[in-house]
Fold this protein.
Amino acid sequence: MAGQRIDGTLVANSVKDIVREAVSELKKESIEPCLATILVGDDPASAIYVKNKQKACTEVGITTKDHKLPSSFSQKEMNVLIDLLNRDNSVHGILVQIPLPGQLNEFAITSRISPVKDVDCLTPFNIGLLVSNRAILKPCTPSGIIELFDYYKIDLAGKNAVIVNRSNLVGKPLYNLMLERDATVTTCHSKTRNLKEHCQRADIVITAIGDRSKFVLTADMIKDGAIVIDVGTTRLDGRLVGDVDYENVIKKASYVTPVPGGVGPMTIAMLLKNTVTAASISKGFVPDS
Ligand SMILES: NC(=O)c1ccc[n+]([C@@H]2O[C@H](COP(=O)([O-])OP(=O)(O)OC[C@H]3O[C@@H](n4cnc5c(N)ncnc54)[C@H](OP(=O)(O)O)[C@@H]3O)[C@@H](O)[C@H]2O)c1
């Protein structure tokens, strides 16, 4: 029997409904949740990502402040802008679209964001809280994946999970969030030996590579009934695709996320959720988790 398609758009819409409700509650308290976006340069893909995030904000009533900057923008100018936004009480979340041009130090810039406005969870302070299971603002893509598991009532306790990615954005924070849910987590990367065997042993495979010339997760690489989460995004013959051979993998797996319509919408939904949480924090309200 074929596995079930995990509908990221459906789950993202349910998160957006909750966010919309929270926004209207905050507005009753005279708080207008606001996300400041920073885009440097003219990379078309980054421009689309930022535009989609701004559009999603508008849909749920979150205001955005757009900062579109030339590719020559300097580190000094960026420091001034971040400091300004950190002090601006009308701004609750700050999003710096990555990657940045070479003259800008990504780590220095994201570390400079006030932790209470760090809606991407990239500051060392928030990463520390994440590792200690105490994060309030959790990284968007990994927490979106956890939200998918919860929606589909997939219990992670005791499951063997393999994450094929070790980036700061995806693999490392996801490792922590899945460990928190009592999964036994293995992180794989480009130097991992016997990657196929790792995947074949896993109850859950999460792949985030985004280059099909390097890696495609095929049906022979998973065990029967495995749960497969495809984070990777790349273009193939003009179409957006992931890392997974979806048509064949879903015949063997129990659940699979499609690309598009899987993890992507969740990343945006969790950004909205974090912005509302950050706005709540500004009012002195600290949620339980
Ligand atoms: N849908 C979404 O919302 C969303 C969000 C974030 C990212 N993404 C997508 O996810 C993908 C990864 O993003 P990222 O920012 O994490 O990229 P990244 O920093 O380039 O990470 C890619 C990871 O893939 C590993 N890798 C590369 N080739 C491999 C191979 N042959 N075998 C095993 N592992 C291999 C790399 O290993 P090394 O560390 O050893 O180099 C690295 O850990 C991209 O396609 C991106 O667009 C999607």
